[in-house]
Design goal:
This protein has about 400 residues and is α+β, with helices and mostly antiparallel strands. It is built from 14 helices and twelve strands. It starts with 10 loop residues before the first helix and ends in a 25-residue tail after the last strand.
Length: about 400
């Protein structure tokens, strides 16, 4: 039967019989229109892992700011996950981000909306600088060597024209997931690169496994936390210089200074005695068990994170964390060393070497800047952002 015999085609039928054109990718302007009030962040992985070539992100909201204000070491990962979900507005599954991709996103927000520099970053003296410091300020040099005092530097992230100077090395062209390593006995182990979700999963598994331990040894943990707090306070106290009050009569200055120095020495001794008292309050056997269990906890954290990167063993897919942990026990150290070499040989992400001004000499020196996640999340949301335009009426 001909089409004429069937009568006129319905519009939907006519459209169905037309060849479908391949949709063109959106232009840059079209992409930006899909994500208003956002900035594009081209990712160094170029769509070769789990993420698209670029993502669009916006500045932090007040909810994000509240999360940032409450951030601490224990909640860091969960907070970063929540922030990443918020700033990307659920475009992506943030769990599938590689850590370098997450750093790129957070650094882009930091640079575009907050600050052109990291204002307080721990400085590592280069060769010969400690000798210079010892000549300039022997007391300060002693504190730095003993770990009682840190040196700090400003890390510039842009040049004088506000152009970013932090580069991201692209993922090497030859890299593809999964990659397979064969050991000397012929066992084939396939891997993928670690993802942010692996860090969170490992942390949660460890938290669950050691929940009872944390409860049973809460007193020891509290005492150790207090010990570290008192130790840090002692470090600050010993760094303080004794200064005469203003308008001290000249004839009384020597006596007043002696009294202030004696008072300062007594305060230091009291702080030291508090530290000794805290350590004496911990029963030695419990302290030993606490330390040994924390070592096991650290080993479990590494095991859980590494196991999450296993894809298959001799071609058999590893689809659950339990299966990956069982397989982990069969993988030799030589294979893991080869895995680490692949990560090093095919590295990508933010370049860590930048020039900073030395707090010792004032000259420009190269420093390895780790760009930890916490470094590029503003720890305070008051007074750090640049001034915005305000209009009345």
């Amino acid at each position: 039967m001909s089409e004429q015999d069937d009568g006129p085609l319905l519009e939907s039928q006519a459209q169905a019989r037309k060849p479908r054109a391949t949709p063109l990718p959106p232009s840059q302007d079209q992409e930006q229109n899909l994500h208003p009030k956002s900035i594009p962040v081209p990712l160094c992985t170029a769509g070769r892992l789990s993420m698209p070539v670029k993502v669009f992100v916006r500045d932090y909201t007040m909810d994000d700011a509240t999360r940032i204000a409450l951030i601490d070491e224990d909640s860091l990962l969960e907070t970063v996950f929540a922030i990443l979900r918020s700033v990307t507005q659920d475009q992506i599954d943030v769990g599938n981000l590689h850590e370098e991709e997450a750093k790129q996103i957070l650094l882009a927000i930091f640079l575009n909306f907050w600050s052109p520099s990291i204002d307080r970053y721990p400085y590592t003296p280069v060769e010969g600088e400690m000798e210079i410091l010892e000549k300039k300020d022997p007391a300060k040099a002693l504190k730095v060597r003993s770990g009682l005092e840190n040196l700090w530097c400003l890390v510039p992230l842009t040049d004088g024209d506000r152009n970013p100077i932090v580069n991201a090395r692209p993922i090497p062209a030859g890299f593809k997931e999964p990659f397979t390593i064969t050991d000397k006995l012929g066992l084939k182990v396939s891997f993928r690169l670690p993802r942010m979700k692996d860090l969170l999963l490992a942390k949660r598994l460890v938290d669950v496994k050691y929940a009872q331990f944390e409860q049973d040894y809460y007193d020891v943990k509290e005492a150790m936390d207090r010990f570290r707090s008192l130790r840090d306070a002692l470090g600050i106290l010993t760094e303080q210089e004794v200064e005469l009050p203003e308008n001290t009569p000249e004839e009384a200055q020597e006596q007043v200074l002696k009294e202030l120095m004696l008072q300062h020495e007594q305060e230091v001794n009291e702080a030291r005695n508090k530290i000794v008292s805290v350590m004496m309050s911990i029963e030695p056997t419990r302290k030993r068990t606490y330390d040994e269990t924390n070592k096991e906890r650290a080993l479990d954290l590494v095991r859980f994170k590494h196991a999450a990167c296993l894809v298959s063993l001799d071609g058999e897919p590893l689809e659950t964390q339990e299966a990956r942990e069982e397989a982990y026990a069969r993988v030799s150290v030589n294979v893991w060393q080869s895995f680490a070499k692949v990560l090093a040989d095919y590295s990508f992400g933010i370049d860590s070497t930048l020039q900073v001004k030395s707090p010792i000499t004032g000259g420009l020196v190269d420093q390895e800047i780790r760009f930890r996640l916490l470094d590029i999340v503003p720890t305070s949301v008051s007074g750090e952002a640049e001034s915005l335009d305000v209009q009345f009426g």
